[in-house]
Amino acid sequence: MKLRFLLAFFAGVVATMGVLALAVSGDSIVAEARADRSSTKAGPQLDIYYPGTEDLASGGPSGHAPEYGTAYAMDRMQEMYTWDVGTRAGFVDFRGGVLEVHEFPYDAVNEVIFDENGVVIRSFPAIHAIDGAVSFILEWNDLTFAYSSDTYPNKWWMEHTQGADISIHECFLPSALLVTKQGFTPAEGLNVGTQAHTSPEQFGRVMSLTQPRLAVGYHFQNDFDTAPEVHTRVRRTYDGPLALAEDYMVFNITSDDLRVRMSAIDEAIWPSAAQKEKQPPDTSKMVPMSDFVRSGAQPMRDVVEPIYAEINERYGTDIPVPGAGQTDK
């Protein structure tokens, strides 16, 4: 059995490891850091919201008011995609075109939000700007994975992540680099770097107090001119096993071993094949095109008919050439 999770975290332009892919299989947990440097906070959800053959289950916390919760955001995202969904409905297998949204209370402390096939995920509050941020713990086969999200150091993390096998916690840019690299004023750099986020020194203290098998710092631009200072500052308060997250860094975790490595990636890869057999599209869901727009179509049947003949011969099908416009109706 192998279960996969895609945890979509803050994906702004300063967020190394905006998305974390998790898989549990056999006796191990595998985590891979993936960044999305060009999107807004909802970027990862937008990027993966394309119809497959199964609905996408999306879970997240509530907010201090309904409009600050995950369900509200996902509903509006689907509304934003109305036109795009309309172009696909009735043309492709659209079973994956619906989001299943599961919202849980942001203020629940170490309560189970997922429990299937031996995988248990818990959440507890994080402290970041306003109510609603949460941290996660995933438990599998006597292994524990902890992820902080953006947060100020807090008592819930200290209590519930003691001795985790892998502890991934925010480790923001030092305040001095926020001033020199991002143009913050000294006051802004201090406030953002130590009060809204967790500084490297604070990160180190958190890890010293919780003692994970591996501490992973994330949420800073891990570049040649930032990593050395971040590492030095972490070491002022923590001397245990440490990794500073990079894009496509992979963590293989078992009870006997814990490895940190980099993925071998192919940037020109095509999407994976569907895991379920495709079904014919439900044409009743097709959004009709107006007669006005349809009247502008240039069928070019002499060009299109050979294309249909080629495909029908190659795949043993007998798909007719539609009339003028998008469909044969």
Structure, described:
The chain has 329 residues and is α/β, with parallel strands linked by helices. It has two domains: 2-262, Ribonuclease Z/Hydroxyacylglutathione hydrolase-like (Metallo-beta-lactamase, Chain A); 297-329, no CATH class. Helices cover 26% and strands 25% of the residues. The chain has helices at 43-48, 70-80, 82-88, 155-160, 175-182, 186-196, 200-210, 227-234, 291-294, 301-315; strands at 2-8, 19-25, 28-34, 56-61, 99-104, 111-116, 119-125, 134-140, 143-147, 166-170, 214-218, 242-244, 249-253, 258-262. The strands form three sheets. It has a seven-stranded mixed β-sheet. A five-stranded antiparallel β-sheet has the order 1-2-3-13-14. It has a two-stranded parallel ribbon with strand order 4-5. Helix 5 crosses helix 6 and helix 7 (200-210) packs across helix 8 (227-234). It is elongated, with a radius of gyration of 24 Å. It starts with a strand and ends in a 14-residue tail after the last helix. Mean pLDDT is 84; it is low at 9-18, 35-49 and 324-329.
